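Onboarding guide, step 5: your first structure request.
Type a short instruction followed by the sequence, for example:

Predict the 3D structure of this protein.
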Amino acid sequence: MIGIVAALGAEARTLGRTEGIDVRVSGIGLDAASRAARSLADAGVSALISWGVAGGLDPALRPGAIVLPVAVIADDGRRYPTAAPWRERQAALLGPLPRPCSGELLSRAAALDGAAAKARAFRATGAVAVDMESLAIAAVASERGLPFLALRVIVDAAADELPRAVIAASAGGGLRFGPLAAGLLRSPPEIAALWRLARRFGIARGRLGQIARAGLAAPSP
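The system replies with structure tokens like these:
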């Protein structure tokens, strides 16, 4: 059984009725992801996958691009490699889908909300994308001796600015619609940015569904 952690229910639902998996919807952030990964490890899964969307740091990556990283890295230099043979089998299963990017994935506690911050992170780390969960899942996998993969799809590109209302509304680990609405009322120009982000999230969810339909490789031959 493969354990999969997704931050949001909308990400988890793209897996459909895939057999041989145990899915946990963790909520947003490293602490939430760690709790979900430990729950799966305690349940006896044989491997862990971090599943969902990510922000682009490499300007070449557009919304819908697949990231199948060789490693997850932290701001402080910690690095957790993904399971190479498993990663290669998974890449082969993707077949006609766009070729996945295998660069490193930065995972951190706070969102990178603007293009300037993303550019600085790209220069400093060389990571191609960023998320807020994979580092914690990788750490649990390393601690428990489990193979680990991250499968992420780009939602916001390197040049995109995340609406501040979205960041504030997701600060508690979920997306709270009351604070989101209040933030948009205070800053109406962000409505257009939110609409653009929603469209791109739809693109990313569609790609996650395609990955799930292509199949998840077994962690061992």
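Each response can be followed by summary notes, for example: The helical segments are 9-12, 30-42, 84-93, 115-125, 134-144, 164-169, 177-186, 190-214.
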